[in-house]
Amino acid sequence: MCGIFGVTGDKDTTELLIHGLKRMEYRGYDSSGICLNNEELIRKRAVGPLSNLEPLVVDLPDSKCGIAHTRWATHGAPTVENAHPHVSSELDVAVVHNGIIENEVELRNFLKSDDKELEFESETDSELVAHLLSKELKKINSKIKNITEDQILSSWKNVIDKLEGSYALAAVISGREDSILFARKFAPLILSHDGKRGLLASDVSCVVGLSESVFYLEEGDWGIIKDLGVKIFNIDGDTVELKPKKLEWELGDAELGGYPTFMLKEIYEQPRVVRDCLRGRLSRDKIKGVKIPYHPRLLRIVGCGTAYNAGLLARYYIEQLSKIPVILDHAHEFRYGAPSGPKSLVVGISQSGETADTLAAIDAAQERGYPTLGIVNVESSTIARNVDHIIGIRAGPEIGVASTKAFTGQVLGGLLIAMKLGQDSKNFHREDLSYFDRHARMLPTSMERMLNDQNIKTKLWEAQQYFSGKNHAFFLGRNTSYPIALEGALKLKEISYIHAEGYAGGELKHGPLALVEEGTPIVVIASEGSSHKKLLGNAREVSSRGAKVIFITHQEDELADSHADLVIKVPRTHDLLQPLMYNIICQLLSLNIAEERGCNVDRPRNLAKSVTVE
Ligand code: F6R
Questions:
Q1: DSSP H or E stretch at residue 503
Q2: Which ligand 1 atom sits closest to the C-alpha of 407?
Q3: Cys-Cys crosslink for 214: which of 192, 269, 556, 557, Cβ 3.0 to 4.6 Å?
Q4: Does the C-beta of 612 come closer than 6 Å to ligand 1?
Q5: Are residues 380 and 202 in contact, defined by beta-carbon separation less than 8 angstroms?
Q6: What is the CATH number of the domain that holds 271?
Q7: For ligand 1, is residue 402 a contact (CB within 6 Å)?
Q8: Given a cut of 80, is residue 135 above it in pLDDT?
Q9: Structural domain of residue 527, as residue ranges?
Q10: pLDDT tens for each residue of 277-292
Q11: Is residue 306 lining ligand 1, measured as CB closer than 6 Å?
Q12: Active-site positions?
């Protein structure tokens, strides 16, 4: 989704702004722009990839301050007029904005009532902020250079106070060549300052490599960043003394490191994610460092997309190991349901920690008085800061839009909760944990072996051929492989644009079977116990209708051989961990298919990495 970057106090401002925009490309965008803050504001904008903006900024004069934006269209089509930065009529203010101004109509009328001649250049809600600030400044003095900094700050506060909705904002004023005004509410914004250069960004990845520590603004914080320092105020206007925090991530995390795509890099990072996520938390006799507010009677899990799928697998694990019932909701549907009973616990799963729907579900849970737990990757994110306790999955930055390594971390986070509650309720015993621990320690090596197995690579290539020229595919699973079927289908559709659906095998005869025809590719993901045999039956059902069946299972499964056109076998591990191995095969299969179709796997069309609007 939209990204903001700002620089003050550096002689290479244009270069830095473009660098920041490139770092945010992964989030998804359809237009971009920059504004340099010199005696006059200099603005350049372009629709499409950053390569369309770059030629427009090559000959810009030196400047030591500027703001930049990547836009993902919400209010108005992706056009140059709607691209940020937006300026006031007299070009004295430029603004970049992430979020949604909900009282847009009232503000538009308010501005018009004062100035009937006022023309809006764009269809965006963001443009209004530039007009509002310009209007406030003019009330003080028509010559900006005669306005004091305190007056600028109070004008900015007056503007912010008028805004309803969500925003991360950065604004520059012509003639104030070292200053950027900022504000945040329900949208992320961070600052950094080394005494000479100030940076402001909506995304940590922009500042990785440029700064070692950052200020994480709180909801409602606002202020000014200049070449010499930062002034931060809270919603009441009181000065805030924020302590800089060390950046969680390093430069290598945000770079390809020799891989052709971030998606491939992140798939290959999964053995490391397992090691890091379980480090210090899992031992032979105890789950450590996993804080759960109380032993709940009911768990509610919320998440979106891949995080929801991880939540589904977590649900199976929690119910199986602790016997505590779990209700799983798409985060955006949670608020429509009835409140849970007493002693419920709400668990939000989110890689970015900024997904607006998940954030809103957490807020709703807190309003209803329930304790909340977050399974998050970005530990400085809004969700991480809003929940009562977090389990950080330690996956490192996930740059590819399609979530891969985060799924593995999210499932492990769910498993830790399941085992902890299982131990507390005496359903998961010390010997169970010790047995699990043995396998979990070997899992990264098994994953590495699988990722480098030539035979598996050949099988994946063969499987890929079944999708050639196809527009529809199915993924089937049962029990703990059902979430993998959903996730496999999600991955395939989002990066290859092949229509794919994940089904529980038992659902097949209740409708979807009608769609199976000669050559339909169907990926069947093995499950554990008695459900496996039923799944083999499902494979037969589709096979006898002409489908091409690809069975993903483990090396000890001999039954699958006679039930599929192609069987991909992966190393055997603990039943609770086996789905993670299968999921990696699905990720690789989707990636290969998408690349063969010429798709950009890191940046699929229409999608954004972090969905910060509801
Ligand atoms: C799919 C994908 C999305 C995200 C979803 C939630 O590959 O990446 O479905 O999983 O948008 O995002 P987070 O986990 O950041 O809340």
A1: strand 499-504
A2: 10
A3: 192
A4: no
A5: no
A6: 3.40.50.10490
A7: yes
A8: yes
A9: 453-614
A10: 999 999 999 999 899 9
A11: yes
A12: 2, 609
